[in-house]
Specification:
Elements: E1 17-26, E2 32-42, E3 45-56, E4 60-61, E5 64-65, E6 71-84, E7 87-101, E8 113-115, E9 118-120, E10 139-155, E11 161-179, E12 182-203, E13 206-220, E14 236-238, E15 243-259, E16 262-276, E17 282-284, H1 288-298, H2 302-317, E18 321-323, E19 326-335, E20 340-351, H3 355-359, E21 361-364, E22 369-372, H4 377-380, E23 393-404, E24 409-432, E25 439-461, E26 466-479, E27 493-502, E28 505-514, E29 530-542, E30 548-556, E31 580-588
Length: 589
């Protein structure tokens, strides 16, 4: 039950007070979960509160348990709104705190480093193991996130406009990566985001929305995994905890007009994004003897000289990035007779690479890899491509869908093709297994690629009680001009789902087969296919006109199959959970 989306009430509860609660217990991981929410209205004001608490142990897999797959956490929210006939304005606050394990995590590869195009996972000289202990203990994430929201919707705000939509948010996110007794990294992300949208009155038959969005983010923690190591005696330099500041302004427009049975839709968005890397703090731990030596070499301003030297190297290795992506699309929706429709969409979209794709330079122990970003490529080896700060993925796409709604048969079948220039992905350079845990040397690369696929579902209403649905999807991804496939592409899937209901009783059963993924990138291994069978039984009890309760039993992976997810960096260490049963009850008033 999704409780979080209602953190800021949009309307007054019809009966003064509404609420819901749910409790569930699970067998596969000893899950214990409780959630609850309540919304109350007084005059034109509504207040909302909710809380969710979850705890689960290491989950079962065929043949045992997956170590460090435990999870626990609490999420709580409070919000209030002033509501009128023309809209509302409100604010909300959400706090999330959780601890969860990192299955298959190893810090043995913290010693890995590079010599040009060679990855070397053994300590020597200045390259020391930053951990120096075994992997017997638990590795986990400790997460804390605070979010504040201001939201508003208002009808007829200005002449010529039907509706105003405002969404302002501030998020303060932090997670610590803890390995046994040691804090080896801390990621933080503080983001202010503010989209404003205006829906205009019809103009030449077109209705649509125009808006602007401003985002300001401050991210830190990239390329750090030795926070537990004290600053070296007689050492000097810049603090390794870099910040990446991102500012983005976007303007957008979408429009729609009907020409008889044909709907014409088009949309466009222009962004201006800038990433800057403020220089970290300079510090030193030099004793009097070293200070005297540096003063003799560089004069009385030796500290400023060392700082300027460190900053010069830092600025050279960490240039800023400015890109201005533009995206546009046009679509035709042809409404045929008897519920049939066909949709054709053409698009040109641009995506700016993420901070990691641009600036990664070091070990990512969560993904068992040493990563080098687009900007830092020449820092690793002069044979790598020139560093890029202006890379933009540009995709030209065509989508075709055929739909039918109403009657005993519903279906939607879609075909799509994307031709992408400068698609950014992690390309393998080398794998080193010297520590006993394979570690990949990955270079983020921009290369041309294509994606072609199909997805869809067909539903048949057999009678008032029974409905059967067939569903599936498949995508083929290739690197253009190379004899290689793209990494971590999901395999095809085909399945069937049946729903039955009779008065207060209902049941669902779902079976699907995920095919093996044999079309893999050079550094990947084949992922075997698997069968998955899930089922749910439910009984709904109407207690009063305003109160209801639902009891349910849900089973997943009833065949207890060992299953691996090909899209995961650590698929072999983290199989999906085995057979699991969850029993629960929902109550609403």
């Amino acid at each position: 039950m999704n409780l979080i989306d209602g953190r800021v009430p949009k309307r007054l509860p019809t009966s003064g007070v509404t609420g819901a609660a749910e409790v569930r217990l699970g067998s596969g991981d000893q899950e214990r979960t409780g959630v609850g929410q309540v919304t109350a209205g007084v005059g034109q004001f509504a207040v909302h509160a909710e809380v969710a608490r979850h705890h689960s142990d290491d989950y079962d897999i065929p043949g045992g348990q997956l170590k460090d797959s435990f999870a626990e956490g609490t999420t709580s929210s409070f919000g209030a709104s002033w509501i009128t006939d023309k809209g509302y304005i409100g604010a909300g606050y959400t706090l999330q705190e959780s601890d969860y394990g990192l299955p298959g995590h190893s810090h043995k590869n913290g010693v890995c480093h590079t010599h040009g195009i060679d990855l070397h996972c053994a300590a020597h000289g200045a390259y020391e193991d930053p951990f120096g202990s075994s992997d017997d203990h638990t590795a986990k994430i400790r997460l804390r996130s605070e979010r504040a929201d201001v939201r508003a919707d208002y009808d007829d705000p200005l002449p010529g406009f039907q509706h105003l939509r405002l969404r302002l948010s501030h998020t303060d996110y932090r997670h610590d990566e803890i390995d046994g007794p040691s804090l080896f990294n801390r990621y933080t992300n503080e983001v202010d985001d503010g989209p404003i949208e205006l829906t205009h009155n019809p103009v030449l038959g077109f209705t649509g929305t125009l808006g602007v969005q401003y985002t300001d983010g401050e991210f830190s923690g990239l390329n750090v995994n030795n926070m537990h190591v004290p600053f070296p005696e007689n050492g000097y330099g810049l603090d390794s905890a870099q910040r990446h500041d991102t500012k983005n302004i976007g303007v957008f427009l979408n429009e729609k007009r009907s020409f008889g049975p044909v709907d014409l839709l088009f949309a466009a968005r222009k962004d201006w994004r800038e990433i800057s890397i403020p220089r970290p703090t300079f510090r030193h731990a030099l004793n009097a003897e070293y200070q005297a030596l540096f003063a003799e070499w560089y004069g009385p301003n030796w500290e400023q000289y060392l700082e300027d030297e460190s900053v010069e190297g830092f600025v050279k290795k960490n240039p800023g990035s400015k890109v201005n992506p533009f995206s546009a699309s046009v679509g035709l929706n042809w409404n045929l007779a008897e519920g049939y429709s066909a949709v054709l969409s053409l698009g040109r979209t641009q995506r700016a690479p993420s901070v990691r794709e641009l600036y990664a330079y070091g070990n990512n122990l969560a993904a068992n890899s040493y990563e080098v970003g687009l900007v830092r490529s020449r820092s690793a080896s002069p044979t790598f491509p020139e560093g890029r700060t202006d890379a933009l993925e540009t995709a030209r796409s065509v989508d075709l869908k055929l739909r039918k709604v109403g009657g005993p048969v519903d279906f939607e079948i879609g075909l799509f093709h994307q031709d992408i220039k400068d698609y950014v992905f992690a390309r393998l350079i080398e794998t080193d297994s010297e520590t006993g845990v394979p570690h990949k040397y990955l270079l983020y690369t921009a290369a041309d690629a294509t994606f072609t696929g199909v997805d869809g579902q067909i539903s048949l209403q057999l009678n008032t009680a029974h409905r059967t649905t067939l569903f599936g999807d498949y995508v083929r991804a290739k690197v253009k001009g190379e004899d290689d496939n793209l990494p971590r592409i999901p395999p095809g899937r085909l399945g069937v789902r049946h729903h039955w209901s009779n008065g207060p009783y209902s049941a669902d059963a779902e079976y699907y087969h995920t095919f093996s993924q044999d079309r893999i990138a050079q550094y990947e291994t084949r992922t075997g296919g698997y069968d998955m069978l899930n089922a749910t039984l439910a009984y709904r009890l109407e207690l009063t006109e305003r109160q209801s309760a639902e009891f349910y039993l849900r089973a997943t992976n009833l065949l207890n199959k060992t299953a691996y997810v090909h899209t995961s960096f650590v698929k072999d260490q983290s199989p999906l959970r085995g057979r699991s049963m969850v029993i629960g009850v929902r109550y609403a008033f």
